[in-house]
Amino acid sequence: MHTYNTATDELARAVIDYALSRIRMDPPPLDRARSAEELARIAGPTITEDGLGGMEALRVFGDVLAPATISIDHPRFLAFIPAAPTEAAILADLITGASSIFAGSWLEGAGAVHAENEALRVLADEIGMPESAHGVFVSGGTAGNLSALVAARTTAKNRRGRPASGWRIAASEEAHSSVQSAANVMDVDLVDIPSGADRRLTGDGLRAALDQMSRADREGLFAVVATAGSTNLGIVDDIDGIATVCAENDLWLHVDGAYGGAAAIVPEARHLFNGCDRADSFIVDPHKWLFAPFDCCALLYRNPELAAAAHTQHAGYLDVLADERNPSDLAHHLSRRARGLPFWFSLAAYGMGAYRDAVAVGLDLAAQTRAMIAEKPELELIEPSGLSIVVFRRKGWSAAAYDEWSERLLRRGLAFVTPTKVDGETALRFCFINPRTTMDDVELILGTLE
Ligand SMILES: *Cc1c(COP(=O)(O)O)cnc(C)c1O
Do the beta carbons of residue 318 and residue 297 sit within 8 Å? Predict the structure, then answer.
């Protein structure tokens, strides 16, 4: 298993050839899931006492497993939140794996951690967070939201002590499901703050909700989650207004920009993110709209010492690490992959200008698609939606009709678009991330709805 011999060399070439051919595919086959029974039947037993050999394992992956795995970088994958990692980021991901980096501590991972910190710094500068801001890359928005909210609660506990009637977090109804999940893990209550007709949570809306809270409820409230790009509709909350109310009321402001935060680097969209400079914590997922491979969420704190106070693990054998600022101290984790390294490599290779242009493509596609849908009598736009998300209805269709259509498109390898629900009613939703998507792709998909 450990000697680099001719068999390893043959496998290395085969694996790299495979990776290169996958990167070159334009587009890759969309593919689709198969049942576990079907996969077991086609693949046969894969883990045996003597091993299949690397070449055979690679064959099983290429022939059986890969075709049962959707290519979410396909230009007509518009479901959920697509991904479209850059070539440089994918290649750096291969290097990251080959380099056995422990990126939990500065002592072990300094070079890689320095690169990650450069990428975090650029993001902090883009949203206007102060020099003091610092953070860490975690696995995803779910882990980022949880780690930020744990830091918020520890800070509140250290300042005010435990409230008599339990801790509370406030967020709008449009907040991502992972905020509820964080509340569950932390055993705190999540208070829904109503958003206006435009579905944005505003400073005024938050203030009105605070005024209506009982003293006891108000006492337990320690954080507000503002969403910078809701996952279903792309709505950005009134972050500036919310920041003001949080400052007046000694509340931690966490901004969830997992999907939409990327748009802050596009000059024309920057104003939507005003107020992020006043956030206590902020997340954006580079594995979504910043073209990094999975899994990669940038988590930033205005005051990283507060995060370290919440998350640093203590043990005799960890004491040697205590003098440095370690990535492991800033979130709920210890060992970690240098998952920000491929993102850094890609930023370094292409430059911020290329990133601004590539994110802007998603915004343009959404704007053009809204205009195209408005022209089609059989379709009806659902307002409001924002950023790179477009939600619309096919007039006269039942929920089952949407499902059948979605499945048919995937089976044909044509596109992957899944229905969503808005106010309880089924609708179709496009999310544009991939800069290789064109309006021809959109036209092709809309054509199947006639
Ligand atoms: C995707 C998303 C999350 C969760 O991120 P994961 O990386 O999937 O864990 C959280 N918040 C928002 C707004 C999102 O779009």
Answer: no
CATH number assigned to the domain covering 94-350:
3.40.640.10
The values of phi and psi at residue 283, to 5°, are -130, 150
Ligand 1 neighbour 392 (Cβ under 6 A):
no
Q: Strand pairing partners for 253?
A: 224
Cα-to-centroid distance, 35 and ligand 1 (Å): 27
Phi (first) and psi of residue 315, to 5 degrees = -165, 155
What is d(CA 347, CA 353) in angstroms, rounded to the nearest whole number?
9
Q: Is 297 in the pocket of ligand 1 (CB under 6 A)?
A: yes
Backbone dihedral region for residue 396 (phi beyond 0: left; psi -120 to 50: alpha; all else: beta):
left
> Who's near 22: CB < 8 A, 6+ residues apart?
28
- What's residue 254's pLDDT? 98
* Backbone conformation region of residue 19, classed left if phi is above 0, alpha if psi is from -120 to 50, else beta: alpha
Task: Identify the CA nearest to 448 among candidates 413, 420, 408.
Answer: 408
- 166 and 189 Cβ atoms separated by less than 8 Å: yes
CA of 215 to the centre of ligand 1 (A): 32
Maximum separation of any 2 CA atoms in the chain, in Å: 73
Residue 323 has a pLDDT of 73
Distance 58 CA to ligand 1 centre (A): 32
From the candidate CATH numbers 3.40.50.1400, 3.90.1150.170, 3.30.710.10, 3.40.50.850, the one assigned to the domain spanning 352-447: 3.90.1150.170
Query: pLDDT tens across 258-283, in order?
Result: 999 999 999 999 999 999 999 999 99
Tens of pLDDT along 176-197? 999 999 999 999 999 999 998 8
User: Both tokens of residue 407?
Assistant: 């499945």
Label residue 199 left, alpha or beta by phi (over 0 means left) and psi (-120 to 50 means alpha): left
What distance in Å separates the CA atoms of residue 362 and residue 84, rounded to the nearest whole number?
Answer: 11
DSSP secondary structure letter of residue 316: G
At 317 the pLDDT is 84
- Give the pairing type, strands 419-422 and 425-431: antiparallel
CA of 248 to the centre of ligand 1 (A): 28
Compute the distance between CA of residue 361 and CA of residue 337 in angstroms, rounded to an integer.
30
Q: Which amino acid is at 291?
A: F
Structure tokens at 62: 């290429």
Cα 173 from Cα 177, distance rounded (Å): 10
Residue ranges covered by each domain of the chain: 6-30+33-69, 94-350, 352-447
pTM of the model: 0.98
